[in-house]
Design brief:
Length: about 260
């Protein structure tokens, strides 16, 4: 028989995990609960419940415009980051390239630089090259921040790719470009899907870079920040809950697509 205390490490790890899960989920649950409160202030107890705040948010023209603007920026960011990230990953994985470690380190640098420092440096850069603040500057900054995640995911997938797949395509008459489109890209698709979804979510959620580089048109985080300055209300909780539910659904669907692509 195994001694009782032999299972204690596993039990402690399980308890620590669930405590951490509660720590993460409890604030979200409280935020969501407050979005149903039939009052104009955020405080317990909740005596009456209503869906009016959600109806008000979904009919709010400013919220819809900010959401569409954020989605447009996220899609443009994803396209740019994916192309650049795949190119860098292919470069790093190619044999005979000098300085691959330096290239990889520079590509991943934006992921480890604090967001505030990154935003300030990008603000200085766009002023130096005479790019006005606004949509183009935001997309540039978001893409720079998203590229490292695409590089890491694609490079990890590339390193598990059998070399004879491309060789077989070349032996059958395909040139390098056709082999890349018909062999490499389909094999990379799980990593590409994961990286693209990650780019979309991080771009929509990005506040610091948008704050430093944005123009007069607010993104969704900027709109929520502006409303918070006037005091918390269940309307803000409803906005945040909608964003939470949509991003969680996108993340779960992306995980489903990634798993299905690997099979």
């Amino acid at each position: 028989m195994r001694p009782y205390f032999a299972d204690l490490p596993k039990t402690a790890l399980g308890a620590a995990y669930w405590l951490f899960a509660v720590y993460l989920l409890l604030p979200l649950a409280l935020m969501t609960a407050m979005s149903f409160k039939d009052a104009s202030f955020v405080a317990f107890p909740i005596t009456d419940w209503t869906l009016n705040w959600y109806a008000q948010v979904l009919n709010d023209k400013q919220f819809i415009e900010a959401s569409l603007y954020s989605i447009g920026i996220a899609l443009a960011t994803t396209a740019a980051a994916t192309v650049i990230g795949v190119w860098i990953a292919l470069l790093v994985s190619t044999e005979g390239i000098w300085g691959k470690a330096i290239i990889f380190a520079l590509a991943c640098l934006p992921a480890v630089v604090p967001g505030l420092i990154n935003a300030i440096s990008m603000r200085i850069f766009i002023r130096t090259v005479d790019i006005p603040t606004g949509t183009a500057a935001i997309i540039l900054s978001h893409a720079v921040h998203a590229v490292p995640f695409v590089v890491i995911m694609v490079l990890t997938r590339l390193r598990s790719m059998p070399a004879n797949l491309v060789d077989a395509a070349r032996d059958l008459g395909a040139d390098r470009f056709v082999a890349f489109l018909r062999v490499t890209i389909p094999y990379l698709m799980p990593a590409l899907l994961g990286g693209m979804i990650f780019c979309v979510l991080t771009s929509i959620d990005d506040f610091v870079r948008t704050f430093f580089l944005g123009g007069y048109k607010p993104t969704l985080p900027m709109l929520i920040f502006a409303k918070v300055q006037g005091g918390m209300s269940p309307e803000i909780n409803a906005m945040a809950t909608i964003v939470l539910v949509v991003t969680a659904a996108v993340g779960v669907y992306a995980e489903h697509l990634t798993r299905r692509s690997r099979n």
